[in-house]
Amino acid sequence: MTSYNFIFDQTISFEQKMERVLEYQMEKCSVYSVFCDNLKDHNLISAESAFDLNTIPLLPVEAFKDTIVSTVAVNQAQTLRFKSSGTTSMLRSTHFVPEPGIYRQSLWKGIQQFFKMEDYVILAYTPGYNENPSSSLIWMLNELIKKDKSGLSRFLELNEPISAMALDAIRSVDKRVMLFGAAFGLLDMSESFRTILPEDAIIIETGGMKTHRREMSRSELHAKLAASFGLPQCSVYSEYGMTEMLSQAYSDFTHRYKTPEWMEISIRNPHNPLEAVPIGKEGLIGVVDLANFYSCSFILTGDKGVKFSDGSFEVLGRYRPSQLRGCNFLIDQD
Amino acid sequence: MQKKELLLKNLSLVWDVLDFWLHSSQSPIEDAILKTKEDGRFSRDDIDFAIQHYRESISYESLHKWLNNSFSASKDINSRLLTKKVLCLHAGNLPLVGLQDVLAVMLSGNHYFGKVSVKDPWLLPSLIGLLEDKAEISCEHSTEIRDFEGLNADAILFSGSGESVITLTKLLGELQITSPQTKSLIRTAHASVAWISAADLEKNETIESIVWACFRHNGKGCRSLAAIFTDADEDMVVQMLSDKASAMQLENRILSVTAEVKFSYSYHKSVGRKAVLIADTLFVCGEPDIWKNKQVTITRSKPQDLHNFLESAGSAIQSVYSVDGTDIPFLYANTESLHMAQTPPISWKPDGTDPLLWLLNTEHNLPDEV
């Protein structure tokens, strides 16, 4: 298999890396290649186009549900198969990762750009790895837990509180708690069990703003989590990731996400996803994740977002077209 | 005079004006039609179609039947007729799309206030002006929402959903166009679906009915067809539609295919999905999707699958069509005739609610459910 190591090489610019990945995937990722050919047939891109971050064609993320997205054969023994959440009767995305090393490097180098991991013990409030081997999040957490030399990092028992003994053990080795979990899971936990975390603990929630009860804003969620766990709001962070991406972005209390060096965001016009919208304007979140070396690095998500001049971005929820079909009185148009 | 007598007297006044407006060679509608055609927002064919439909379907008898049925179903039929201020916000996606609401307000004996869309500014005002001049019926209209500042309407009717409703409601409150006591009838349905069986496809008129259900008014109405469920072969259905559209020279009606449609087409083809561009609309075989403009999905399925889809789509679906309008076993939903998709009677019920009945109940601050 073609080597991916260059994507983590800090001496090569992002643009140069992107060009190499594009060349590789245009040749080897058939769905992306055919997609680009079809765009050319419709004169949406030209055969001679040189792309940059804001013009590169982005494959709709549902491709991972609709077909196999891969640059290599997917039947190799070590290939990881990650599936999006959902019931077995639903169509779910599948992300084939033929070389687990690339995901290991991406998640570890990525999180270290935001947190000094040797200071932390990870407590993951999610189902354990054995119950969910096809979850890319849980696989990631399992890898982070294995990397902790203290041996104190682990998956927590669901529907049980964090024991005082566990917190004492973490304190005794001069480490901080990093409580990791899905937004709704952490909320349920905080409402079921009153646990005050040490003042230097942090929480990282991984999205999922809809609970079975209601939808809630990120600010509201963070305020609730902070209050419930006895922490200031600045100790609550968010992670932006998905089955279809091998890299993650992280945000602090400002709700502005930052990406690792091999990942960039381009906000696209929903009515023409080959166009980027100006900085500060809302649109569809496009992701260029070079760690998706063996699948497709150029993805158009279904999320709405806005990018800022410093390269950070905000996630504003799922995209819903403003000009829906049917009669719709729009004050600025009617 | 009894309430019903008053309403019937009112109906006669309204009908006299309507009759003149629709049928007289002196009617201002002719000038309004010309101006609307010059504006170029709607195809000339669609404008003519809409006018012709109203000329054929609106009569004293059809209005009388509508009023009679609504009145009989309304509550407190012996109470006094209280005239209230009713504001209608008219969208401009189809020519004369707000006509039913205008007539509902008139027939209910209320005062009409209409925010006319800047996208369709001639047709409705040509009627409203006549109602004022000839029948001395109190009505006001404007294309500017701020002209209704301070109105404090008793009731408001419009279509919208999600964020647009939240923004609009806030603005209306700030301008005191509405108050916390204003009753509102907000329609949220976006699109319609159809069950077409393999046997239906053997009938001559079925494919043409599907084409017009998709393409009339550029597919922009809530009664336009967005998803077809069928037990026939999807590829065959797409081919039949494509052949028919070609024979009907539908491409003459369109200006261009949007980048959004081309992008979507490129994607579907790349994942091996059957997708065909017919005129400016993408027909895709696969999972049903009613949310994208200029797209119609065709899903091979059973009636139970359509039933399940209706349950998940909820209030987003306006109408469910079958070819003859007969109910389909295991569908568990009322169906309308596909042939009437774009020619509903004046008394049809958007989102399942008769606006005339709603107004007759609302004037007495009775519960909104009818």
Describe what this molecule looks like in 3D.
The complex is a heterodimer of chains A (334) and B (370). Chain A is of the alpha/beta class and 334 residues long. Chain A has 2 domains: 13-63 and 262-318, Luciferase, domain 3 (Roll), CATH 2.30.38; 102-251, Rossmann fold, CATH 3.40.50. Helix content of chain A is 26%, strand content 22%. Chain A has helices at 14-28, 30-41, 63-66, 100-112, 136-147, 164-172, 183-192, 218-229; strands spanning 59-60, 80-83, 94-97, 120-125, 154-155, 176-181, 202-205, 236-240, 249-251, 257-258, 263-269, 272-276, 282-289, 298-307, 313-318. In chain A, α1 (14-28) crosses α2 (30-41). The model of chain A has no long low-confidence stretch (mean pLDDT 91). Chain B is built from 12 helices and 12 strands. Chain B has helices at 3-23, 29-39, 44-57, 60-73, 99-107, 123-135, 162-174, 204-215, 234-247, 259-270, 303-313, 355-362; strands at 85-89, 111-115, 139-142, 153-159, 178-187, 191-196, 225-230, 275-278, 281-285, 295-300, 317-322, 336-337. In chain B, β2, α6 and β3 (139-142) form a beta-alpha-beta unit. In chain B, α1 (3-23) packs antiparallel against α4, α5 (99-107) runs parallel beside α12 and α8 (204-215) crosses α9. The longest helix of chain B has 21 residues, at 3-23. Chain B is globular and about 65 Å long. At the A-B interface, α2, β1 and β12 of A face α7 and α10 of B.
